[in-house]
Amino acid sequence: MKDLVPKVEHPFKFLEFDIKYVYIQGTRTNAMVLTVLDVFSRWNLGQYIANSVRKEDVIELFDEIVDQYQMPERFIVRNDNGSQFIASEVQDYFVRNDIIQEFTKPSTPQQNAHIESCHSIMESAVCQRFEFENLEDLRRTMNRFKDFYNFTRIHGGLEYKSPARLLKKNMVLK
Questions:
Q1: 19 to each of 79, 84, 96, how far by Cα in Å?
Q2: Element (H, E) at 47
Q3: What SS3 class is residue 8?
Q4: The pTM is what?
Q5: In a domain, 2, yes or no
Q6: 59 in a domain, yes or no?
Q7: pLDDT tens-digit map of 70-123
Q8: Domain contains 38
Q9: Phi/psi zone of residue 159: left (φ > 0), alpha (ψ -120 to 50 degrees), beta?
C-alpha cells in the first residue's frame, strides 16, 4: 500500500506532479501549469505552461528533466488520475525508462501533498497578486516564481532551508 506521505531519504527518488489552472486576464482564458516536484528537497524540477497539457507534453517535460538532472537509476513518480497522466503512452514511457508510476486514490489530494502545497503557495504568492496579459506574461512570472521557490523560499518541512540549500548540503547542487 502506498504511504499517504512517502518517507524519502534521498533527492530525486520520489517525485510528485500535477496541473494547476491559472486565469489569464488579458485573454480571458485559463492556462495550465504542469509542475514536477522532488519530495525530498521540494525542488521544482520543471514546469510546462500552455493553454492545454497533452500526454506528449508530459513525456517531453520528463525527457527534459532526465536530461537536465542526475537522476537515480530508478525513481518513483506519483500523480493523480488526470487524463494526461493515465494515458497509455505516458505509462509506457515510464515503464520503458524504468520509472515507477503511482496513482493517487480519487479524492485524496493528501497523497500528493507536496505538489498540492507548492501549487497552493503559487496560488497565494502569484496568482492572487498578479493579472496576466497573455501566456508569455504568465510564463515569465512563473519562471521567476520557480527560481524564488527553489533558491530563496524557506520550507518548514526542510528545517527552514531553501530547496537549493538542502540540495547543496546533500551535494546534489554545486
A1: 10, 10, 23
A2: strand 44-50
A3: coil
A4: 0.94
A5: no
A6: yes
A7: 999 999 999 999 999 999 999 999 999 999 999 999 888 889 999 999 999 999
A8: yes
A9: left
